[in-house]
């Protein structure tokens, strides 16, 4: 019922004053879809980078345990 009231008010305004130049809701959905896909791409790159770092650190063998020498001073 509330949406019908808003629609009626908008139609009355357009008849009296002029067009409102409102964007259709489909355009708003596309903008949200772009934001979601961009966020998913960034998260994917972060996860891929972390996975690559994990694999590369598992493949590389450590050079050895560092030994501290006491000079006797």
Q: What characteristics describe this protein?
A:
73 residues, mainly alpha, 68% helix
Protein topology:
Blueprint: H1 2-16, H2 25-59
Detailed description of the structure:
With 73 residues, the protein is mostly helical. The protein contains 2 helices and no strands. It has helices spanning 2-16, 25-59. The longest helix is centred in the middle third of the chain and has 35 residues, at 25-59. It starts with a helix and ends in a 14-residue tail after the last helix. 0% of the residues are buried. The mean pLDDT is 79.
Low-confidence stretches: none
Q: Can you write the helix and strand succession as a string?
A: HH
Largest sheet: none
Coarse structural class = mainly alpha
Helix fraction by DSSP (H/I, runs of at least 4): 55-70%
Strands, total number: 0
The percentage of residues in β strands lies in under 5%
How would you sum up the global shape?
rod-shaped
Q: Radius of gyration in whole Å, from Cα?
A: 31 Å
What separation lies between the terminal Cα atoms? 89 Å
Number of alpha- plus pi-helical segments: 2
Mean pLDDT: 79
